[in-house]
Task: structure prediction
Amino acid sequence: MRLIIDVMSGDAEPLEAVKGAFRALDELSCQITLVGREESIKSAIKEISRDENEVRIVNAETVVTMEDDYLVVIKSKKDSSMSQGLMLLRDGE
Result:
């Protein structure tokens, strides 16, 4: 099983999502792709004392806010973590 996780949403981004991703990695023995700001993801991984090579990281610099319309995100924020994750899914990743 492969999971694509947008780690740039929610409170304490991306730390809590990264913690959850590594928990899934440990409990489900799956492949994990983390999508978001690469430096923030690497920092969160370091904070929880894990190896960034255990997961795949896809950089996405643009942030989607709660106020953004989903159509705007898909059409104009192609470098957002949400758009990148959806494109990975579309491409069979």
